[in-house]
Amino acid sequence: MTVLPETASTHVDVLIVGAGLSGIGAAWHLQDKQPGRSYAILEARGASGGTWDLFRYPGIRSDSDLSTFAYAFKPWTGEKAIADGPEILEYIRRTASENGIDEHIRYGHKVVAADWSSEEARWTVTAERADTGETVTLTCGWLFCASGYYDYDQGFSPSFPGAEDFAGQTIHPQHWPEDLEVEGKRIVVIGSGATAVTLIPALAARGAQVTMLQRSPSYIMSLPSRDVIADKLRAWFGDARGHELTRRKNIFQQRKLYSFCQKHPTLARRIIRKLTEKQLPAHIDVDTHFKPKYGPWDQRLCAVPNGDLFRALRAGTADIVTDAIQTFTPAGVRLQSGTELPADIIVTATGLNLKLFGGVQATVDGEAVNPADCLAFRGMMLSGMPNFAFAIGYTNSSWTLKVDLVCEHLCRLLAHMDAARTDTVVPVHDDPSAPTRPLMDFGAGYVQRALDQLPKQGADAPWHLAMDYREDVEHLRNQPLEHTALAFERRAARDLAVAA
């Protein structure tokens, strides 16, 4: 791990937490739209890339098309529309290197606390250094949290009866061993989400005999790994214009698909079922293994490029079982039905743990902030927290679409405050009777397990987290920055009051 040396400055205008997809994007927008403003990025790990550096399991890839998952400002030119993890990681790091962003990253700095002083109009941020264990402090005018929303230290793995009796290896995908040999091994993958459907064909291609063990099914859709229209648009108009046109096309398609599934769930179920049935071998029953209990897009749809999961099932290198686990045994897994699945390796693709804002403990003028007591303003700020913004992407579309809009809006807000000679802005929600719900109104397990930790959102804008790109374009890009729920403070007025 490389830990960059401390710079001479311990104060920056904007401090970004996290050097992943969101943090690198935020830095680019600041450099592009606020070039005179200083910033630094604190990254807890020893390398940039966030999710795409952390996860190393076979087949790791995006579950969104790269024309929308890539930044708006940097065209995706790779061959694959659904790209592999190493390609995405290289894209993120190339963006940082080409724009000098990596020179602003301090690796091995885990932010543990952030304290706001209204009198000084700044945050004091405490970070632990990975190389020495010492704590360092920096101050900033704005704190931008780009650390995502899950725990990088530990994935979610439920307690399985008999787990200690299993004689083979048990692995969580978040901690995949680099030297693991799978050829000729019998592998049971527990799970039915995006990680499981990615792992299974990749392991089968490496010579393993894989069984997908799910308690309940998920919606799985086959998508082409290449976007021929995107290829043609880039050839005709060049990378930049072709990227822009492809993004527009894919945003439109994503919105229409999501809207159709929400408005017509019964018809959507039938269509997905028919498409799935056509790709299955005769011995696998579609209604047993591919008929979820929830509606389409109540949870995220799993994408499989070129139907690779279905191809592995047809080839007989993978199988699928839908049942509950009774216990692990020395030789594998015994199911409630009495069937025993033999295994050399068990992979618990059972999900993630949510850790909002990287677990940073925040205070405002000495008072501890509980995020669960806050409401989200425009899906990027929290009530009662001055000069604080965060990036949480879409759950029903590409993450980066939302991040780009949030970063644009933050830069507009900074410019507005400069013009108005203000140094502090805080969202104020003063209607305790207003109805609220959790910030992420989503059926995924990692969200449901952490509802009590999440901030709240209201029923209407600006107090809700929109999951619609067009709505966010209107609110974050087009609407005026001033709002009755935003309290701005003028530094000059405070200085005069102190002088008097």
Automatic annotation (TrEMBL):
Keyword Oxidoreductase: yes
Cofactors demanded by this protein: FAD
Pfam families: FMO-like (PF00743), NAD_binding_8 (PF13450)
SUPFAM superfamilies in alphabetical order: FAD/NAD(P)-binding domain
InterPro entries recorded: FAD-binding_MO, FAD/NAD-bd_sf, Flavin_mOase-like
Keywords, alphabetical: FAD, Flavoprotein, Monooxygenase, Oxidoreductase
Domain of life: Bacteria
UniProt record similarity statement: Belongs to the FAD-binding monooxygenase family.
Protein name: NAD(P)/FAD-dependent oxidoreductase
